[in-house]
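Exercise 3.2. Students should predict the tertiary structure of the chain below and write it as structure tokens, then compare their answer with the key that follows.

Predict this chain's 3D structure.
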Amino acid sequence: MRCDNFTSKLFKYVFGITTIGLFVFAGQVNAVKAYSNATPLGNQGYSGSLGLEFMVNSPIIVYSLGVYDSDAKGISGTLNSRLWERTGPSTGTALTPALSFTSGDPGSLDGNYRFKDLIVPLLLTPGTYVVSSWGYNSVDLNGNTNPANGAPFPVITGETGGGLVTYSGSSYGPVATAFPGITSSDNDPFHYAAGNFTFTAVPEPKTYLILGSLLGLTVFALSARKRPRKQPK
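Answer key:
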């Protein structure tokens, strides 16, 4: 009897974890890439921090961060990416640790960007945020639309997720790991080919209701199966 009780509890636990895991996995599969760049080659090797600003209009979940990989040839040094919440004209609060991309651990390639998953997906509520990236050099180039940097000029576009986000500006800073607090020359939201992220909308409440119902039905079924039957008198 004790063994049956343990098995029942274990099954409930495994079922719950698996259901939640499938829910998160489904979100990752449906996640969209924020920035895309049709230009394969970078044209700048800026050693400081490069930032791309975006506004969240409706809550989103961020699953991964990315960096630009010029010519999709791999990374020779170390490139990094981090997500910030803007707190002022030139200040921000880090929301994630820096994710590092190296030659030995470059992440997954998608177009001209490489991505790594966050350990825990991050919920962003309406507000203003910046994805920063640093570590670029003469070999690991970033892209810059400023004509002073020469061709090829990056052709960058942004996926809004149906209006979930609005791309709103760009910035840079001389300190690589710090918040990029200097507005770029034209504040073009697609000024740099540098950092990136993937995201989805926050699931509607009915999705959670469905998951809760599945868990409830499973618990009920197990309880009914284990309930002792009354013996006829």
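Discussion points: The chain has two domains: 2-28+206-226, 32-202. The helical segments are 2-30, 205-226.
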